Amino acid sequence: MSILVTGANGQVGTALSAALRDRYGSDHVICSDIKPPTEVAGRFVMLDILNTQRIAEVLDDYQVTEIYHLAAILSAHGEWNPPKTWNVNLNGLLSILELAVERDIKKVFFPSTIAVFGNTTPRIDTPQAVPLLPETVYGMSKASGENWCHYYALKYNLDVRCLRYPGIIGPESLAGGGTTDYAVDIFHHALQHGHYTCFLSPDTRLPMMYMEDALRATIELMEAPSEQIQLRYGYNISGCSFSPEEIASEIGKHVPDFSIDYAPDFRQEIAASWTQSIDDSTARAHWGWTPAFDLPKMTEKMISELNNRYV
Ligand code: AKB
């Protein structure tokens, strides 16, 4: 087994690479990113996802058998340069899918997102199969990406597996470029400064998930027998849903002097176009998904992990 992770220095990439190294052994995981990592924790190669020739070389040099394709520009940064976001997110994926078929790669993981939903989607307990009309270029690229994954599975029998990640919160890494980033930043600000200014309004409820749940969902999906994976576009997965005022009040139980104020910016409009909670019954039925962390449990774990780090 030889696993390539693209976008390995990102928020999920950092934690997922470590989880894959723990599970399959360091020598079997090749991390890649467009920038060098701040800390080298295993095997690493520089890789620009728009350089198809270089992806091919890495796949051949390391005899790659599985790809976790995380390289992408997220929702908020994506709006700064829509053509570049489309290019990186969609053409990067197309190169991976094409090279995976040519090289008979065994499995490909593609992270989709709740950003595929839009104002036409039911907001509460969003069902698995709904019309997708996203309002960000990130959401458009991921919705199209889901369709391409479905197409490659159908036409070329590629074993490609996708999850629609909610906002992900973990102590391992900082978030960057997304709309749900506030739910990570708030912990760091609470513990370092006792105060946070939130860029979303107090009652903006979004689907979220603790990193440990997200990593387990990813690995369980990838290890499930192929016949259980009846959808080759993104599976809905749910962790917990909350608003900034709800998470702030939960943090206040552990950091008594914590205070929060609100200065919504352009990310408010993006968040308002997404849904509030997710129906993940299809993932539960097909491959046995169940989340373990609710808001109180996640908050307690985040605070104890970050406290250890800051101390
Ligand atoms: C973002 O906020 O852009 C991401 C996501 C929900 O996909 N965290």
Describe what this molecule looks like in 3D.
It is a single chain. The chain is of the alpha/beta class and 311 residues long. The chain has two domains: 191 residues, NAD(P)-binding Rossmann-like Domain (Rossmann fold); 94 residues, UDP-galactose 4-epimerase, domain 1. It has eleven helices and twelve strands. The strands form three sheets. Strands 3-2-1-4-5-6-10 form a seven-stranded parallel β-sheet, sandwiched between helices. The protein has a three-stranded mixed β-sheet with strand order 7-9-11. Strands 8-12 form a two-stranded parallel sheet. It is globular, with a radius of gyration of 19 Å. The model has no long low-confidence stretch (mean pLDDT 97). Bound molecules: 2-amino-3-ketobutyric acid (AKB). The site of 2-amino-3-ketobutyric acid has 11 residues, from loops.
How do the strands and helices of this protein lay out in sequence?
Blueprint: E1 3-6, H1 11-24, E2 29-33, E3 43-46, H2 52-61, E4 66-69, H3 75-78, H4 82-102, E5 107-113, H5 137-156, E6 160-165, E7 167-169, H6 182-193, E8 195-198, E9 206-210, H7 211-223, E10 234-236, E11 240-242, H8 244-252, E12 259-262, H9 266-273, H10 281-287, H11 295-310
Parallel strand pairs: 1-2, 1-4, 2-3, 4-5, 5-6, 6-10, 7-9, 8-12
Antiparallel strand pairs: 9-11
Helix pairs in contact: 2-4, 4-5, 6-8, 6-11
The chain binds 2-amino-3-ketobutyric acid.
The site of 2-amino-3-ketobutyric acid (AKB) has 11 residues, from loops.
